[in-house]
Design brief:
By secondary structure, this protein is an all-alpha fold. Helix content is 74%, strand content 0%. The longest helix has 29 residues, at 15-43.
């Protein structure tokens, strides 16, 4: 516990920065979910293949955010990187995906 307290003293968590980073990831996921839905509709993907396309696309977006925006150091940008960067809003973007996929 002492090392965590020391890390927080050296690199404090700023609530505004965490909120901004979470909002940015949410906006990216929402936009890309709609784009993946459009692409699935154009490609004519149906049933499980469409959902697999969405999950693979979401994984690709997470990797790109990790490499390009976080520069492979997600602990500096997120309080809980696994939940916020890799798992956050995956199912939240699913409704945007399905909506644009079926149009």
């Amino acid at each position: 516990m002492a090392s965590q307290e020391r890390d927080l003293a050296i690199h404090p968590i700023v609530a505004e920065s965490v909120q901004h980073n979470t909002q940015t990831i949410s906006n990216i996921r929402s936009l890309t979910s709609s784009l993946f839905g459009i692409a699935s509709g154009i490609l004519g993907l149906e049933s499980y293949s469409g959902f697999i396309f969405y999950l693979l696309g979401t994984l690709l977006v997470s990797v790109l955010v990790w490499v390009l925006l976080c520069r492979r150091d997600q602990k500096s940008y997120f309080q809980s990187p696994v939940a916020e960067l890799w798992g956050g809003d995956v199912f939240g973007g699913l409704s945007s995906f399905v909506l644009t996929w079926t149009l």
